[in-house]
Structure formats: C-alpha cells, structure tokens
Amino acid sequence: MSETPTTPTAPAAPEQSALPQDVRVGIIGVGRMGADHVERIRGRIKGARVSVISDYVRETAEKVAAATPGSRVVDTPEEVIAAEDVDAILIASPGAFHRDQTLAAIAAGKPVLCEKPLAMNPQDAYDVVRAEAASGATYVSLGFMRRFDAEYAELKDALDAGELGTPLLLNCKHRNATVLPGFDDTMMVYDSAVHEIDAISYFLEEPVVSVQTVVPRSTELAPEGLHDPLLFVFRTESGVVVTDELWVSTNAGYEVRTELVGSKGAATIGQAGGRVTTQLEGGRWGGDVPLDFRPRFIAAYDAEVQAWINAVADGSNVAPRSATAWDGYVGAAVCEATELSLTADGEVTVGLESRPS
C-alpha cells in the first residue's frame, strides 16, 4: 500500500524577542522638582515615559499631564503606587510624606527614586531600611544628584584609583545667592548641609562619628534668625576631618566646591563653571555664577534619572553609586547630630544602628 505524498512542512520561524518597552514611571508630586523630572523624562531620558501623575493640587497635576502625552492623573499617591501601568515610582512630594510613600512602594515591589530626605528623622528612615531588607530585594534610590555630576565622578574615580593616596581632609563650600524668608539655622542643616553630608558617604564610604558647629561673624544680608555663614566640622571613623562652609546670603549666585586632600596630593572640583574673584584692584577673572542649583546640576539630574531607568530596566533597580536607603538613614542620623551641635558646646557624637544584612 503506497503512502500518500505530503507537502514538506516548512521549518518554524524563530521566535522573535519582544521589543523593549519603555519603563512606565508614576510621579508623586509635580511642584518644582517633580515638574522638572516630568520634563526630563519626556524630553531627555531614553527608555522611559511618564504614565501616571498625582499631586496634592489636582489642577497642577492636570496641567503637567496635559503637556505629557500618554499620561493620566489620579487623585492619590496610593493610586500611583498601585497602578498597573506604573513600573517604577518617582517621589517628589514634600519630605514629610516620603517615608510612608517609600514603604508603600517597597510593599508593592516597585523600584522608587525618592527625592531627599528619605524621612524626617533617623528612626523613620531606619524603618525604610528594615522594610527593604525584609523584602529581600533592593528597591530604593535616593535623589542625591551630585553623585552623578561629572566632576564628582572624576574625583571619586581618582580617589578609588589611589591617585590621591590616603584621604586626610575633605573641604566643602556651599553658597547660595539668597534664601527664602524664615530660613534658619536648622534649615541650613537639612536643606543645605545635607548634600555635603551625603558627599562624605559617597567619597569616603565610612561613617561620621562626631560633628561640631563653629559660628563665625554673620553677614548683614542674613535673614533674621539665621547665622550666616556657618561652619560644620565632621570627623569620620578613620579620622578624616571634613569641613563644610555654608554661606547662603551671598547676593551673588550658587556655588559648590569640594577639595579632597590626600597623602599623595589634593584635588578640587567645582571651580570651572563659576567666577573666581581675587580681592585686588581689577583682579577678576572667570565667567558667570548660576542663580540657583538647577543650571549647575542639570546634567547630574539627567544622569541620575537615566541611570535609575537603566537599573529598573535591567532588574537591578538601584544604579551603581546611587544613594540608597541606608545612605538616607545615615544622612538623617548625621543631620540630627548636626542640628544638636548648633547649640552644643563642643562635639556631638553620631549614633548609628547596625546595618541589616
């Protein structure tokens, strides 16, 4: 009995991998920083789009969403976190809400980039650290954008490569043209010095053990209730001394400088983009000083968000060199001790809980 001839079956086409999809970002809070982030993701970040927006003032969220194709507005942060069309969450709400919103993101298993502070006190920040550790994964990135500044990275690379030898001193300067009415010494700690406090963790990777405040003569431009300038002196576990000079009523512009003194040499960053004035007749050279922090660090913000999106896309969630929940807790603890040092006679000890494994 002969077999009926059959038509040869064509080999199956190889399965095509799905094209990569944009990371869908939910934004909580679209005031100045949040709106900047929406514009950044919309116009300059690859591999991401804003999908859901919320703000305490719904009209503000609707205005931002109207300029952001493909996004929608919800009423609450909880709706942003739970949304099925949100893969990752960017928190730019007021700091008092950061703890609870970050905890909710961890519980939902969604990566989060939270603007500083992580929480309003060390105890609340440590709650976030413990919750993330208990989850068994890393979810939290903290928005200290200076870590992604090109000059910061260059100095960090030189330090890690041993080019500068053993770190001995870290000298920081932080200057603003003006501050809002009501800005006081405590705000000098939590709004300004907090960035240099995180820089200690970034550059030196060791804890601060003590801090002391030195109060120089104040400028006549300082608002009532503010000692300006202020000098904070930190000491790390290995004995590195860190100075942070803050002068926020310069009536000139925004400047951030950092000098690291090591056993093999010293390196300074933060001078290339700003004016340097020598107090002599006609002794002036340089360019312009930006009026606030955004022009100075716009590229760092872009790099920070792009690195975060890349980390979310590859499943690592937290980019290399990004500030973590632990860094946020350390910063909160050092800020609390720094606040105490404002009125203390001498050094104040910094106490830290142990880091969960």
In short:
The chain has 357 residues and is α/β, with parallel strands linked by helices. It has helices at residues 32-43, 58-66, 77-82, 98-108, 122-135, 150-160, 185-204, 293-314, 325-341, and strands at 23-28, 48-54, 72-73, 88-91, 112-115, 140-143, 167-175, 208-214, 230-236, 241-247, 255-262, 265-269, 276-277, 284-285, 323-324, 348-349.
What proportion of the residues form beta strands (DSSP E)? 15-25%
Q: Which structural class matches the secondary elements? A: alpha/beta
What's the total helix number? 9
Most strands sheet: 7 strands, mixed
Tell me the total number of β-strands: 16
**Which series of helices and strands comes N to C?**
EHEHEHEHEHEHEHEEEEEEEHEHE
List low-confidence stretches.
1-19, 274-285
Q: What would you report as the Rg, rounded to the nearest angstrom?
A: 24 Å
Helix content: 25-40%
Strand order within the widest beta sheet: 3-2-1-4-5-6-15
Task: Give the overall form.
Answer: globular
Mean pLDDT: 89
Cα(first) to Cα(last) distance is 74 Å
